[in-house]
Design brief:
It is a single chain. The chain has 126 residues and is an all-alpha fold. 63% of the residues lie in helices and 0% in strands. It has 9 helices and no strands. It has helices at 2-15, 19-26, 28-31, 45-52, 56-64, 66-69, 75-89, 102-109, 116-125. It is globular, with a radius of gyration of 15 Å.
Length: 126
Amino acid sequence: MVAGALLAAVLCAASHGNPRFDYLLHCGGCHLEDGRGDPPEVPDLRVDLPYMIGFEEGRAYLVQVPGSAQAPISDGALADVLNWIIDTYNPELGGEFERFTAEEVAEHRAIRLLDPKRARAALWND
């Protein structure tokens, strides 16, 4: 039990300020280390993100999906993870996109997404 608490403390300390580590810990299990996911169930971050970050509902969705919204990291850390994902898996954007902020994440995170699959389908069918 003590070892588990110690491991948790080490992981939390290691993740502080490291978006790549936070991605691997909280997102990589489903989206995989290279962001390819397992379409259609798990979206490919290398393909889907440029579309999703281009409008408010898409940005909200990225924050509200359970893996993002429920990750035990701060709003600022989640904003850093989302920006890291876009920079890393969408280099063609050259960093030219509206970066997520802690304030934006806090606003969207406060709204629970009840049916992520339906919400995603609605965004892609608009």
